[in-house]
Amino acid sequence: NAEYMGELVLESDSQMVPTVLTLAVLGFARPTPNSLTSDAPNVSVVFYGEALCGGCIEFVTGAFNETMTAEGVAAIIDFEYVPWGNAYFNTSKCSSPFYDSYYIHCWINECGLNATAPIPSDCFDSVPMCQHGPQECLSDLIEGCVIDHYPPEVYIPFIYCAEAENDGRVSLLPSCAPQFGIDWDLITSCYTNTTEAQRITEINARKTIALGNSKSFTPWVVVDGVAMDDPDQLLKAVCDAYRGTKPKGCEKVGTRQAKHLDVCE
To answer: What is the pLDDT of residue 38?
Structure first.
């Protein structure tokens, strides 16, 4: 809950010097316009991920980056990132002193869409348990605050900087803000405020729990409502799903060496 989040602090990491990214490097910060007039609905892409997960970092630097920088492809995508991943709330019925993936399913069964009424009152108002510990919880919350306060063209490059360049390390997240016009004081006031922190956390928890027990790992990527077996094939999935004239970037399908993602389960 928010009290738990408030106990977390940004740890210094003097040994790490963040790479300074520019909008030119992050091509998807300003999506390449589709040279063709859009003649079909955009493809929905929802990425359910978590900070400090190696598979999520591999996905962001690989398939996601390839897709969003392919000419014209970003223009046919409606993208959403949900930073919650394999976390769960440590409720009275699904309680453990340490993170245990068993309790993810306990929480889903007790608090999810198919749970039997009455739903426990602490389903979304207890201590969040994150797979990679409290620092992941804080990183996810901070990313959630950026998503809540800024549009995709701002938060997408921030997420790239946070995850791909800095491995989701809490201490380095502030360095990603200025280059994309993000007011870090605004973000700080979000994640340190009890009410706001709880609201943001609950939003992403509810979006993720709505998947039920079907989500078995992160990165979990859903394209037009269909979960991908292999998120590394995102560009192909988007291009196959788009029913209009394919943008030029779709010609890149299959040109990047496939990679087996080290997913977090």
So the answer is: 63
143 touches 83 (CB < 8 A): yes
Structure tokens at 10: 């940004």
Q: Which residues does the chain have with pLDDT short of 50?
A: 1-37
What is the pTM assigned to this prediction? 0.87
At 232 the pLDDT is 96
Instruction: Provide the 3-class DSSP secondary structure of residue 221.
Output: strand
Amino acid occupying residue 92: S
d(CA 128, CA 98): 11
- Residue environment code for 193-232, b if the CB has 16+ CB neighbours within 10 A, otherwise e: beebbbebbbbbbbebbebeeebebbbbbbbbeeebeebb
Who's near 141: CB < 8 A, 6+ residues apart? 5, 83, 191, 197, 200, 201
Q: Is 156 within 8 Å of 28 (Cβ atoms)? A: yes
- Say whether 60 sits in a helix, a strand or coil: helix
Q: What is the pLDDT of residue 73?
A: 97
Query: Of 2, 7, 52, which is closest to residue 168 (Cα–Cα)?
Result: 52
CA angle (112, 92, 201) in 5-degree steps = 55
Residues 6+ apart with CB under 8 A from 199: none
Residues 77, 92 contacting (CB under 8 angstroms) = no
Environment class of 145 (CB within 10 Å of its CB; exposed 0-12, middle 13-18, buried 19+): buried
Give the residues across from 221 on adjacent strands: 47
